[in-house]
Amino acid sequence: MTNPPLQTIDEQEKIDLEGIEVELLTEGVYKHYGFDFRDYSLPSLRRRVWKRVYAEGLSTISGLQEKVLHDSSCMERLLLDLSINTTAMFRDPTFYLAFRRTIVPLLRTYPFVRIWHAGCSTGEEVYSMAILLQEEGLYDRCRIYATDINEAVLQRAKDGIFPLNTMQENTANYIAAGGTGTFSAYYTARYDYAMFRPSLREHVVFAQHNLVTDASFNHFNVILCRNVLIYFNNQLQDRVQELVLNSLEMFGILALGKKETIRYTAVSSSYEELDSEERLYRRIR
Amino acid sequence: MTGRRRNWSPVIERRPVPPPELDKSPQLIVIGCSLGGMRATQIILSSLSRDFCVPIVIAQHRHRKSDEGLPAYLRRQTKLPVVDAEDKQWIESGKVYLAPADYHLLIERNGTRGELSLSVDEAVRYSRPSIDVLFESAADAYKDRLVGIVLTGANEDGSRGAKRIKARGGTVIVQDPATAEAPTMPQATIDAVQVDRILRLEEIASFLTEVCQITVRHP
Question: Is the Cβ of A214 closer than 8 Å to some Cβ of chain B?
């Protein structure tokens, strides 16, 4: 049942060393490139870093550190690994259903609606929101600010071209999300890709923004920040939640991912819960 | 009131407590299962007493759109509180945590405190939640104070994670493939690592109770 003690000690040293290496890597990346991953949640960070180590044909995190610091194209690849979040259109359909039922009626009372989609990744959920708002007849008075830390990812979001083989799932999500039209009407299929209608991004501004190091840039009626904060540790979550709160109008809406909550953060008393299941909150102070 | 900031420890009866430096009893149990896993976890959980205080974290392959059915079902079968894991939730003694559908669940250690962390990174071996991801992160966080259990399933998820658990000095238990609804998963782990025990489902709870040094109080 127990390993020989020697082996355990070796393993123990290896884990401790790995912790040091991750720390040195993130510190180096921050000092040299300005991207701050120092307060990212460790287990996910570690997995993503190791993935890059192997993809570069290296065997240690220290080896990756050397390569990243001397070769900016390697940094770009690491940045992609650390910032791309896989998603789908209408991910968590019940969220979009709740948004239609609970939030849309509130937004109808506004003459103009500013929405911030923080950490929009490759944009699937931005297009989903644009479709929803079009169907509700609200899109013309909305402006969506879609931001991400990564330029390459943003470019994909701007293009609005997604693999055709994901459309079956997307269509099912769209229907479950309460879509009132025909999903295939929103895109044109070309070879293996689906190009989404340019009219969907007419009121979308794509911009690079780093939640960790950049400041608030506007006040919004709605902020969507779904499955982004899970990659941050507690301290960083608190800091970013502060930034989000300061970017939200009084009675503005905050939407988090399905398994995220503000209950544990320092700003929780500033919000009331609109939908506990779908993690919809309203700023009340 | 908040789960994360409160340190909750139940009153438990232990056998004569060894001095801290010799106490190697497990502090966390991780379970991985797939096809047939619902029944299997139910059998284990229903046999654990209400006093069982080592927290349990379960990664069961669930359909992306599966609703809250699984926790509700398990809640009816066990005296232990069962919750769908939330991001950055503290791991509290005596609770059972389930990896939510369509997320990876990872374990982090913050000082003496265990913490849950979610990710939406791509599926590993077509699975999200992935058993390997849970096991590997738990092995790094809990080292030799971890027990990993691989139950029934029709793929090989979990075997890599089991390897990491063994490398970090933890304990790996596998459901006897001959008794598993789908033997592939437990067999893959047996092939990949030197497991500590191969047990029938009915034996797992009593084994856990024994290694966790909990006095079972019969009502």
Answer: no
